Amino acid sequence: MLITDIRSRLLHSLQGLMTVSLLAAPWVMAGRCFGQDNPPQTEEQNQARQALNEGVQAFKNAQYVEAESNFLRAKQLDPRLLNARLYLATTYASQYIPGAPSEENRRLGEAAVAEFRDVLNLQPRNLSAVDGIGSLLFQMAGQPYDPAMFTEAKSQFQKHIQLNPEDPEPYYWIGVIDWTLSFRANGEFRARINQDTRGEALQDTDPLPPDVREQYTREYGPIIDEGIDSLKHAIERKPDYNDAMAYLNLLYRRKADTVTSVSEREELIKMADDLVETVKEIIQRRVETPRQH
C-alpha cells in the first residue's frame, strides 16, 4: 500500500467515526457511538440537540458549511455537548485534503485537531478524539514532511493502546509511522551517498556502506525495532491482517540495512519475501471465498 493509500484509508477511518451515528440520526444514538452526553435539562440544551440533529442531516448531504454552522451553534448553546464537538471536528477533517498547500486547507486540518483536543479536555478517554488527532496529524505530516508531527501522531495511537490494548489498529499505525520515518531517512542517506560518489549509484536494495549503516542504525534502529514489535502485536490480535504483514515486510528490509552480518541480512530479506507471499495467499483466499451475507 502506497503512502497516498494510507492517507486515504485514514480519512475513510476518520469519517467512519460518524458513520454508525449517521445511520441512526437521533442524538441519543449518536451519544452511544461518540461521547456520553447527558439528557437535556434546559431550553438551551434542547436547542443544542436540535442544532446537532440538523448538522448531522447537513453532513449526510455533504453540505459542510451548513453542517459546520449547526455544530458550532450546538457547541455554543451547550459547551459540554461532546457530540457537537466531535461532529464539528469530523466535518473539518472530511474537507481536509492531504498535501494540498492552501492556507484554507491547513486551517481545516488544524481546526479539526483543535476540536478533537477540546473533546479530550472534557473526556480524556474518548477514543474517537484520540484517533481523530492521530489520523489528522499523520495526514498533515506528509507534505511538507514533518517528522516531529509524525511522532506526535504516533503518541496518539500509543494513547489508544493504553485505553484499549487489544485493538490491533493502533499497533498497525505505529508500525506504519515507524516505517515512514525510517524509509524516508534511508532514502536521504542513499541520495547523499550517490550525490557525493562518482561511478555506479547505490541501489535501494544494496547494503549501506559501514559508516552510513552505523549512523542509520544509531538514529533509526530503535524506531525500526519498535515498528516491527508493534506490527507483530497487530498480527497477534488479527492473524489475517495482511496490511500489517505488508508493512512488517517493509520494516524487515529496513532492519536489514542495520545489521553487519551478510547472513543476517539475507535472513531478514527472506523473512520479508515470505511475508509478501503470505499476503498474496490471504488476498487470494478472500477473492475465492464468497462473502457472507
How many angstroms separate the termini?
A: 28 Å
**Main beta sheet strand tally, sense and closure:** none
Q: Briefly, what CATH class of the largest domain? A: Mainly Alpha
Using the CA coordinates, give the radius of gyration.
Answer: 22 Å
Compute the number of helices: 12
Structural class: mainly alpha
Helix content: over 70%
Number of beta-strand segments: 0
| Overall residue-averaged pLDDT value | 89
Low-confidence spans: 18-33
Structure overview:
The two termini are 28 Å apart. This protein has 2 domains: 3-145, Serine Threonine Protein Phosphatase 5, Tetratricopeptide repeat (Alpha Horseshoe); 173-286. It has helices spanning 3-23, 27-33, 43-60, 64-77, 82-95, 103-122, 127-141, 147-163, 168-196, 210-237, 242-256, 262-288. With 293 residues, it is mainly alpha-helical. It contains 12 helices and no strands.
What features would you highlight for this structure?
2 domains; mainly alpha; Serine Threonine Protein Phosphatase 5, Tetratricopeptide repeat; 293 residues
How would the blueprint of this fold be written?
Layout: H1 3-23, H2 27-33, H3 43-60, H4 64-77, H5 82-95, H6 103-122, H7 127-141, H8 147-163, H9 168-196, H10 210-237, H11 242-256, H12 262-288
Helix pairs in contact: 1-2, 1-5, 1-7, 3-4, 3-5, 4-5, 5-6, 5-7, 6-7, 7-8, 8-9, 9-10, 9-11, 10-11, 11-12
